[in-house]
Specification:
Strand content: under 5%
Shape: globular
Helix content: over 70%
Number of helices: 25
Structural class: mainly alpha
Largest sheet: 2 strands, antiparallel
Radius of gyration: 23 Å
Length: about 475
């Protein structure tokens, strides 16, 4: 048997993706609770896709050892992200029992006007993400609190989550601290700061449009219902009665943001946030810990590892008072593992490279090259379920083609970010989509239409390419 099969036909390469999308569409369209095959429907469908890919590879005489090796390599690549996911779960649990997230919600309820909540959410998350360079950190910290505040204002969780993710990915794209922002120019052969400067041409207009849309949405929200003062006061009083609320609690998220800004490893930064939250819980939230367990230490450990339920008679605040700790992230981790198994199997049989090569062959002009790059990034985000692969594979495949057409490398790096980085959060089984669902508790179908910045970014980059707006060229192109 051969090690790999780079000669797989395009039709065969597309079969697993078509089957995957068909099964997922069937589940979404015909099962209201999205549980056709139980709570692990997405995972089972991804594994079926991986199994189909492996069978196709074996039929084409691809070595089973090669397929297994690629799958293990794919899983190995997310070892650190899985640890981060577990720490995010611990962060969410400890930040709730320590009063950090309740304090964010309390001050949000008392200081934010519902009529400006959505555009303000967009700005706050953009600033935090620019500072930390991470949409993950933004979502897991201020994102959780903002969704809770939005819910208290009777604003759809999908709207709030869409604003959170839009702002978070604006910062993730534009921050020099972001891993994807560094990866894209590295793949395209460009310079980091030239890449960031060039991205502003498409990113800033997209962000402004997103801000305007959220402002218009806010103007049309019935503030007489969202701003029901008696309900807001009731929620605020419940939080202040149950928790010790003080600005001092914000030292915990400030620590994490500073460590992220200083480029401290995410595992260390998040662990520090968990540790300080535990200390604050033991110092400031004795009453809360007593309601969870007779032993304060057991209560703290429960918040880190297990489900934690803080008793409350206010139904609207139940979600804020409950958390899953590391246990709450297991569904997301399972989905991530299954996605990487599918991506590894597709890579092993040569399907990913074949699809990208086929797109490259059809790029007959400059606009077609940009379109092919965007489709390739979207396709790999769907098929391989990983934003890094959606940057690396098209980056490698299209680099020479951009040079041959006299296009500066920042054209490619910007397109990789506009279509690879930001769309990852729009795919439920992608590692990013699964992460944000696990953290915010809002599914991708709920926030998809409101993640305006994310789905508009690839459209904006194609508009610029179609009308040849600010398309930078190199002085001398390679001979075709």
């Amino acid at each position: 048997m051969v090690e790999t099969n780079n000669q797989i036909s395009l039709t065969k390469a597309l079969i697993p993706i078509c089957v995957l999308i068909s099964l997922l569409a069937y589940n979404i369209l015909f099962f209201e609770n999205k549980d056709w095959l139980g709570e692990n429907t997405y995972q089972i469908i991804l594994l079926l896709g991986a199994f189909l890919s492996a069978i196709m590879g074996l039929i084409d005489k691809v070595s089973i050892n090669h397929i297994i090796s690629k799958i293990f390599s794919s899983i190995k690549s997310i070892a650190i992200p899985i640890v981060i996911l577990l720490l995010v779960g611990a962060l969410a649990g400890t930040w709730k029992v320590s009063g950090v997230i309740p304090a964010m919600v309390y001050y949000g309820l008392n200081l934010i006007d519902p009529s400006v909540f959505l555009p303000l959410t967009l700005i706050v998350t953009a600033v935090v993400s620019l500072t930390t360079g991470s949409s993950y950190t933004t979502s897991a910290t201020v994102g959780i609190a903002l969704v809770a505040v939005g819910t208290a204002f009777n604003i759809s969780p999908g709207m709030t989550a869409g604003a959170v993710i839009s702002g978070a990915y604006f910062g993730d794209k534009m921050s020099p601290l972001s891993d994807t922002t560094n990866l894209a120019p590295a793949m395209a052969g460009g310079d980091l700061y030239t890449h960031i400067k060039y991205m502003t041409l498409t990113t800033v207009p997209t962000f402004i449009i997103t801000f305007i849309v959220f402002s218009l949405i806010s103007l049309n929200i019935d503030t007489s219902s969202t701003g029901d003062m008696s309900s807001i006061i009731s929620l605020s009083d419940t939080i202040s009665n149950d928790f010790y609320i003080s600005p001092i609690l914000f030292l915990v998220p400030v620590l994490v943001i500073i460590l992220a800004y200083l480029k401290v490893r995410p595992i260390i930064a998040l662990s520090s946030g968990v540790f300080l939250a535990v200390i604050f819980a033991l110092i400031f939230q004795q009453n809360i810990l007593d309601t969870i367990d007779s032993s304060d230490l057991n209560a703290v450990f429960n918040s880190i590892f297990l489900d934690t339920e803080i008793p409350t008679e206010n139904n609207r605040i139940e979600r804020l008072y409950n958390s899953g700790g590391m246990k709450g992230m297991l569904w997301t981790i399972n989905l991530t593992l299954c996605a990487m198994i599918f991506g590894g199997a597709m890579d092993a049989i040569g399907a990913l490279s074949k699809i990208t090569s086929a797109l490259l062959e059809r790029a007959k002009n400059m606009f077609g090259l940009f379109v092919s790059t965007v489709i390739s990034c979207l396709g790999i985000n769907i098929a391989a379920s990983d934003q890094y692969l959606a940057i690396v594979i098209p980056g490698k495949m299209f680099k020479d083609a951009y040079e041959e057409r006299g296009l500066a490398p920042e054209n490619l790096s910007r397109t990789l970010e506009d279509s690879g980085t930001v769309t990852s959060a729009l795919i439920p089984w992608n590692t990013c989509g699964a992460y944000h669902f696990g953290v915010l508790g809002v599914s991708v179908p709920e926030y998809f239409i409101y993640a305006i910045f994310n789905w508009m970014s690839p459209i904006m980059t194609l508009i610029y390419a179609g009308f040849s707006i600010k398309i930078r060229r190199i002085l001398k192109a390679k001979t075709l």
